[in-house]
């Protein structure tokens, strides 16, 4: 079966750092993706990991450990506009299909 | 903007009626996908296409059919809509690059 777990909700303070965890158990692995989705909008791509380690892109970083089936998304210097849902997704097999977790709703408070 | 247009953006229909949602892309991608998004479930794959007239089922395909007669258009049909098909439907394109999503269709079945 395919299972991707992430916390349902998180709250953080403006200017702080927050880490959103994702664990996965999938039949096949061909990369892990993080998407951001604001309410009523389409998901937009944030980051991609296929090898173990950290990928940094501005205020956002994503980490992958394939042996542990674990990833996290790190958001630094939080801004109010970072309030959104963050989706973890695993690409399985060929064809580009993504399996998604249920998403983590992040609320950034002043 | 990845050049994906979904229509209609909103639709209300009655139980038992047929409904067709359209996804149009200008990127000439071979692969196209239909997902539905529901609270507590995240994004779930309904059907996908890997070329004209080539389609396959996703994890929640029951009650849905698709057609791809041209590279740019991928249609999702609910033959006889049910209340459980009330959802937000997203089309996506991509293969080895991150999937890019359309703006979604909000469907309500009364």
Q: Please tell me what the overall shape of chain A is.
A: globular
**Whole-number radius of gyration of chain A?**
13 Å
Mean pLDDT of chain B: 95
Order of helices and strands of chain A: EEEEEEEEEEE
What is the strand tally of chain B?
11
Helical coverage of chain A, percent range: under 10%
| Quantity of strands of chain A, as a count | 11
Number of helices of chain B: 0
Major β-sheet of chain A, in short?
A: 6 strands, mixed
Structural class of chain B: mainly beta
Calculate the terminal CA-CA distance of chain B, rounded to whole Å. 33 Å
Low-pLDDT regions of chain B = none
Commentary on this structure:
The complex is a heterodimer of chains A (110) and B (110). Chain A has 110 residues and is mainly beta. Chain A is 0% helix and 56% strand. Chain A has no helices and 11 strands. In chain A, the strands form 2 sheets. In chain A, strands 2, 4, 5, 9, 10 and 11 form a 6-stranded mixed sheet that branches. Chain A has a 5-stranded antiparallel sheet with strand order 1-3-8-7-6, with no helix packed on it. In chain A, a hairpin with a 6-residue loop joins strand 4 and strand 5. Chain B has 110 residues and is mainly beta. In chain B, the strands form 2 sheets. In chain B, strands 2, 4, 5, 6, 9, 10 and 11 form a 7-stranded mixed sheet that branches. In chain B, strands 1-3-8-7 form a 4-stranded antiparallel sheet, with no helix packed on it. Chain B starts with a strand and ends with a strand. The model of chain B has no long low-confidence stretch (mean pLDDT 95). The interface between A and B is medium-sized, with 19 and 25 residues.
């Amino acid at each position: 079966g395919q299972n991707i777990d992430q916390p349902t909700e998180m709250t953080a303070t403006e200017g702080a750092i927050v880490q959103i965890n994702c664990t996965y158990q999938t039949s096949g692995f061909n990369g892990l993706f993080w998407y951001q989705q604001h309410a009523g909008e389409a998901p937009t791509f944030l980051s991609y990991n296929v090898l173990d380690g950290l990928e940094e892109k501005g205020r956002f970083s994503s980490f992958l450990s394939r042996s542990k089936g674990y990833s996290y998304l790190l958001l630094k210097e939080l801004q109010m506009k970072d309030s959104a849902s963050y989706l973890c997704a695993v690409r399985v097999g060929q064809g580009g299909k993504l399996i998604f977790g249920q998403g983590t709703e992040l609320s950034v408070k002043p | 903007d990845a050049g994906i247009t979904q229509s209609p953006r909103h639709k209300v229909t009655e139980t038992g009626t047929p409904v067709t949602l359209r996804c149009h892309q200008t990127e000439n991608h071979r692969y196209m996908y239909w997902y539905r998004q529901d609270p507590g479930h995240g994004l779930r794959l309904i059907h996908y296409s890997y070329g004209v007239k080539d389609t396959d089922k996703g994890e929640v395909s029951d009650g849905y059919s698709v057609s791809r007669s041209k590279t740019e258009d991928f249609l999702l049909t609910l033959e006889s809509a049910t209340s459980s098909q009330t959802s937000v439907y997203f089309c996506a394109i991509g293969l080895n690059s991150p999937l890019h999503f359309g703006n979604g269709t909000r469907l309500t079945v009364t």
